[in-house]
Amino acid sequence: MPTETQYALAAIATSKRNVARVRTIKGRSHKLPFSVFLPDHQSLRRWHVDLPESAELLAEAFWPGPMTLILPTRHPALRRLGGGATVGIRVSPEPLIEKLCRRLGTPLLATSANPSGLVLSARAENHWLSSQVEVHGMIWARPARYKRHVTSTVLDCTRPRIRVVRPGAIPERIWWQALPSDTIERMR
């Protein structure tokens, strides 16, 4: 389905079968964790995801938007996504994602809709998606308005010092501005 950045291959994140199926479709190692979409950052409490102070400031400034925050979790289903005691969380402004999360009452697996480790051209990605839809019986939400953009910025907020896992749509110089100077000083 479309996001504000890329196509996402999504599934109900609390289903072991769905997570295994997405790993197979992508050819993704069990060592690489998946992140999830939530409808809003208020949903974190329900899914036993902790929001450290710095992450809360980033969430308030950039969610919904192209920022994935890696956060501590105590939820058993989210811990099975490969991050152990952590999970990547994203809140997308794409209305389809919010509606699905709310209607299903569960986080959605959030991973790029391409083979693991490969970045495909839009045409090659569409060809790959078409073949996967046929083989795996997936539903492909292919809107006319979709454009590919830079991937989400991924930040690990599980330690006192924020670590950039993947630079993306929100540059470091921009997200640092969302943090007050006393928070930045504590991180140094």
Biggest β-sheet description? 7 strands, mixed
The named CATH superfamily: DHBP synthase
β-strand percent reads 15-25%
- Class inferred from helices and paired strands: alpha/beta
Tags for this model:
8 helices; 188 residues; 15% strand; DHBP synthase; globular; alpha/beta
How do you describe this structure in short?
With 188 residues, the protein is an alpha/beta fold.
Task: Walk me through the structure.
- This protein starts with 7 loop residues before the first strand and ends with a helix.
- Strand 6 (about 155) and strand 7 form a beta hairpin.
- The protein has about 190 residues and is an alpha/beta fold.
- About 35% of the residues lie in helices and about 15% in strands.
- The protein has a 7-stranded mixed β-sheet with strand order 1-5-2-4-3-6-7, sandwiched between helices.
- It has one domain (about 10-185): DHBP synthase.
